[in-house]
Amino acid sequence: MSGSEQLTALLQNNSVAIVSMALWIFGILWMMPGRKVTPSRGVIPGLVLTLTGVAGLLLSFNAVYADVSEEVMFWAFSIIALVCATLMITARNPVYAALFFALATLSTCGLFMLQNAPFLAAATVIVYAGAVIVTFLFVIMLAQQSGAAGYDQTAGRAAPTVLASFVLLGTVSVLVSMAPPEISTVPPVDDSLRLAGAATAGEDAAGTAPGGGASMRIAPVDELLAQEAAAAAAAEANKPEPVVNLLSRATVSHPVGSMKGLGRSLFGDYLFAVELAGTILLIACIGAIAIAPRREEGAL
Amino acid sequence: MSETISSMLPPDLLLLLLILIPGAPLVSAIVTAVFGPKLLRCRSHLPCWSALAVSFICSLLVLLALPTAADPNALDVIPPAASSAPDESGEPVAGDGQAADQQELPAIAAVDIQSSSRSTAASPELIVVGPTWLELGQMSVGFDLRVDSISAIMLAMVTGVSLLVALFGSGYMHGDGGYPRFFAAVSGFVFSMCMLVMANNFVLLFFFWEMVGLCSYLLIGFWFHKPSAAAASRKAFVVNRIGDFGLIMAIFLILTRFGSVSFSDVLGNPGMIADLAAADETLLPLICFCLFLGAMGKSAQFPLQVWLPDAMEGPTPVSALIHAATMVTAGIYLVARCTPLFMFAPDVQVLVSATGAITSLIAALIALTQTDLKRVLAYSTVSQLGFMFMALGCGAAGAEVTTPAVTAGMFHLFTHAYFKALLFLAAGSVMHAMGDVIDMRYFSGLRKALPITHWTFLVGAAALAGVPLLAGFWSKDEILAVLGTASSTGNYQSIFRIIRIVATVTALLTAFYTFRAYFMTFWGEERFPVEAGHHPHEATPIMAWPLRILAVCAALIGLAVGPTHQFQTYLQRTVGLKPYEAHFHLDVMVMSAVIAIAGITLAWSFYVVSPAVPARIAGMLAPFYLLSQKKFFLDEILYGIVVAPLKIFGRICVFFDRAVIDCLIDSLATVPASVSGLLKNFQGGVVTSYAGVMWFGAVAAVVVALSLF
Amino acid sequence: MEVSPMLDAADGLVRIPAEDLRTLVVGAALFAIGAIGFLTRRNLILLILCGELMLHGVSLSLVTFGKLQNNNEGQAFTIFLLTIAACEAGLALALVLALYRSARSLDVRLWTELREADVALAPIDAPAAVAASSYGEIPKLTPAGAEPAELPRRNKPRK
Amino acid sequence: MPAFDQLNQAAGLIIPEIILIATVCIMFLTAPFLVTETGQASPGLRHRWGILTLLSIGCAVYAWIKSPLTDGAVGPFEIDALAWYVRGVTLSTGALLALLLWDQTEDSIAAEVFACLLAVLAGVNLVSVANDLIGVFLGLELVSIPTYLLLYLGRDDWQSREVTIKYFLLSIFSSALVLFGLAWVYGLAGSTNLAAITQTAALTGAANGHQMLTVALVLILCGISFRLTAVPFHFYAPDVFQGTTPSAAAMLSFIPKVVGVVALLQIFPACYGSLQPGDWIPTSALRWLLAVMSIITMTVGNMMALRQKSVLRLLAWSSISHGGYMLVGLAVSGGAAPGASASTGLAAVLFYLPVYGIMSIGIFAALSSAGTKLRPLRALEDLHGLSQIRPAQALAMTVCLFGMGGLPPTGGFFGKLNLFFAAWKENTELSRTLAVILAVNAVIAATYYLRIIGLMYFEQSTVSTEKESGQIAPIAALNSESA
What we know:
The structure holds four protein chains of four kinds.
Chain A: H1 3-13, H2 15-31, H3 44-59, H4 68-90, H5 94-114, H6 118-143, H7 158-178, E1 182-184, H8 191-201, H9 221-235, H10 259-269, H11 271-291
Chain B: H1 2-8, H2 11-40, H3 45-69, H4 80-83, H5 96-104, E1 112-115, E2 125-129, E3 132-136, E4 139-142, E5 145-148, H6 149-172, H7 179-198, H8 202-220, H9 227-258, H10 263-266, H11 270-279, H12 283-298, H13 307-310, H14 316-325, H15 329-337, H16 339-342, H17 346-369, H18 373-392, H19 399-433, H20 451-465, H21 471-486, H22 493-522, H23 541-561, H24 566-571, H25 586-609, H26 612-620, H27 622-629, H28 634-679, H29 687-708
Antiparallel strand pairs in B: 1-2, 2-5, 3-4
Chain D: H1 2-13, H2 15-30, H3 45-66, H4 81-102, H5 110-129, H6 133-154, H7 158-189, H8 194-204, H9 211-228, H10 236-243, H11 246-271, H12 284-306, H13 311-331, H14 344-370, H15 386-389, H16 391-405, H17 411-426, H18 429-458, H19 472-482
């Protein structure tokens, strides 16, 4: 196929996604402040365009979760996250922007829940909504007591930037929707490794649990045994011993995202990383103190 | 006597001598250059004196020891420690004797002294294999030194004359601001000249050939604030470059055809030369022509002689040093050294002779009418160099004439060095006394005021004129004799007949103009220029003694070595020369004596007896007089046919450069400016626009990478 | 129950199910939107918030991949991401405050003293001129007896 | 318990970094108690902190020498030859930087400054020893976060704040790019462990895998190019160099480049299934990208440097162009041509890095010690006649500038020569083009370096003579240059 034919095919196969992204672009551009301070054009048309665009983009994947409630939650969280993100970057009032950011963060946390990450969802809400946003709001209030500032009413180079960003987004979405990438899953744990792991974990005798699909449920034992047999056969096919972060593997008792599993991972495989992150936090704290203006002697 | 000396000189010591000869002046040059201006000041002559004295003594020892030192027959008188070194292989062997030597002289690694495998009693030679200096392909150039007969003679002459000149110079230059500079340059000059004659390969020779040119440039332009001196030094340098071009071409040709630049390999290999000459009959003439071109430049032969008279702008000791005794002899040395090559190019040899004849005649004619004493001497130098070339070219008459021809040329070079140095120094003494006035029209009758100068100048002039029994007489006889031989044998008889006539006429003219200068300066009524002050003073002792010594040399050196043919016998043993039986040519002697005396008489009658005659003759032959006085308009002709077209060409080049190249380059140079002028707009300081460009770059990179994937 | 597709593949390669692809695209979209905001807005705090939004996109991708890969590494990565983001937010706040103290403004375009020497400054709007037009005038009591002036439609305060 | 054994063993692999980080913690935690509320400190406090810093680096060097090589380890850390080399380079240049910072900092903030330097060094080392994407990421952040502090703490004025906010914003932006790429790499490979990624990539041919991998790697490359100051990710450099202190600029000219190169060499070969960085053969798309980026970087850097009037800005642009030279080595690292050693380009880059570092630190050291607090050297005019006022500094700077310009016989010459030959010997059209452009750029660059030397030696001075400060640094730099 020649280049132009390829391009035509690409456009035809992804017409829905492309059209919806175009709508979204127009929505953003509608709401985005201009180069000069101009009155707002009203958010409703932009909001409609954005909603349509986001929905179209998600619809173009043509897939649903097995569970209806999950599907509904996905739609709700995705649309809220993306629309709030759009509103956040186009808001002319930084306070609103921060609040939209909080909303987008909350929705993202909802998506985390959907992806088996309840702990992360909670942690993000606590860190962002509880700490970051509030602090930022304080700063905004402190800085902008006198109301609207000119620099919040203008934005530079909106059109090219939006186009470039959507080229990237379009590339990603077209690439993955046309030919979903094949990911290399970590091979099942073979006997020796599992024994080592079992000795470590004691109660993890049941081996690995498949975390595929929307499964947070534990698979029936006989099915697991069958799977193990298949895995052993695969392992015998002269493959080198796989390198894995053993403690990060999901097990039956510690499925992906559970507090225990995540804890084993963090304080097992990533023990040093945790220490390192702690050091970075220390540096950042002391750094923030050092950056903050020194107060006068005796003053609070 | 030589046996005793060589037995006193073990090879270690001999090596030390060989290294000291150029080494002492080098050290002196460096010391004087570094410490002279601040520390030594008016004592700057001391390093130079001592170095040149050391050098001279070493040269004398080497000269005397050479015939036996490397003689295989004499090996048994050399201590056994060294007898391992001169072996048959010709390769450097580090014997026991050398170990101690290397400790003494750590600077020169792997030095070995040996007699060449080809060395016979006939051609003794000492070769020092120095450290390799340049490796290019199969060519390897080292600091290899070689002393054989011709080098030894040259060394003795160069160091001896230089020593006397340095002594004289300390008196002459006393009080000059550049006193240390003078002695540094003189030391450097002597070092270069010694290395030039000691070099054992063409590249090293060329290197020091250029060093000599550089030092002469520094010395001619010694008073660089004088525009004429600066111009003269530049002229000398540029004209010499033309000759150097020839030399370097010759070296390339030799390298490509012979595969080596070593004298031992090239010159010491007559069989190979013959083979190459047979294989390609234009090769050797071409090489020889190129070599001769180099010699023409350095030895001021027509038409490249123009630089030498102008070079008189340097201090007079410098004239004596460079332009009479040493530097200009480099060309003669080169041609003589390359005799084995020239033997296979008789046409070029004839050219050498013819060039010499033309040069000597023209120079003599010009010298007739010059009124500047130093210029007369300068033209006489050119003329005498022409004589030497005349002799060197006589080898064209046949192989058996070659050696007499070369020895005759070298002999004249040898004697000429002494009397010409003497004449220049005497002229310097006159100049010193006359307050730097050297034009003979402004003074006369100095014989009473400057008795020593007068007597020494008279001896030198007589020697130059060829008065019997003085130095010039013997060597000029040799040349006339060898010219006679050439005009009666071989293929080029008719040409050599003409050359012989020219030589005879030139000899007459030489006698005439020399004594014209002598009579004009020292006879007649006593007149001094105003610059001399009320009373001209005779030379100080430090200037007078070199004059006396040189006068003795000029008077006796010919007598010492001429009748006994010792010089010829010694020189014959150079590599490439064939021994021959030297004998007297009484007829020639008588003739040349008559000519000399005739010339002197003529001068006496013109300038002492009836001083009005020359003016009348000049009036009668006005055009010719003018021609001579204006140096045959050679400078003007050269300017017209060479310099002016080149200048026009240069103008065109400049125009092209300005209008085309500069425009191109300028427009090219605006590219970065305009490009960066565009790029600077991205650098406006706004951080989000920086991030924007980063983002565009990243997205573009993704798209490009995917489309290339 | 649906059998995990991962066990079907003999070579250890499986396709990502389409429903999870959507989540990945949502992550990428958050990333892209954050970038847009980062590049166009001028408020320092907004810039930093947009940076955080980009990191949200990354986190979402990581978490999704963690589920697909059936290990905790993705979530662990996200936690580190969160930590670093918190560090940067803390530093950013200190920095923004320090900047605000000297510039009395959060406009990023004020910080352009360092640039190529002969480039013209980016225009900076006078904030005072804006305050009136952007959110509309703050309602005031009209003088007694006069009709209240009708506000233009466009200048209505945005909810 | 192999898993925990692995962890226990892993602690032994990073003793130098543990030493550094422990010192950092000690300094950060005790420093605030030695300074009064208004920021007054006992005079000479910086000497104590400086000595502690040097001591810590010395211990780290000792531990580094004793450290084992663990090729092919699967744990969180792996010390291969690259890591060993990078550690040496970092620690030695770190000592130089500490000396340079010594007299450039005030007593009250000395602890923070030195601790930041140590943290940065530890970050670079951790990137090189990490065997995990998370380790690499944290290492990168451990480099950037203290860098913000260093930039801010250097001075207390408008410019330093501007510098910090610019660097900060662009840095988090580039970090986001890297992170997005890393997320996809993790997603496609299934693990954050580099050994596991290598294995998976080797098994499944990840180099020819999904196109998203290319997108991810390109984004990582773009994000890391920010550290390498590759055009168009270079924008912070001129502004930051101009606005910050010479010592911070010296750090910034060198450390991010090291960490960038190392991070690339950690991530990319793994994604192509190569155990050793030297075996890495990038796809043609990536090679083209690297090559184009290096061409643009070299050219733009040099062209912009030509028009500079501020010496710090000029050095920034020269630093950018040096980043371009390094990219040449990376672009040709995967020889791919038969007969060519794949690691030639890498070796050339790794040789060039410390050479460039020493030259760059030397120049900034000379600049900072030749200037004074009252009258820092900023514009090129300030350099006029420096050779008369500060001959030692001028000489040191001349030597370093000769090196930067690639004039023989300096290390810079051999570095450039290595890069040139690495590119030339690969014998493809692309690499030869790169080599030629490298040579042309080296010539262009030489003009402005020589112009600086000319200003220092042949112009009349306008600088008043004041008491010299900080003689130690340039001399140290000079010594290491000649060594």
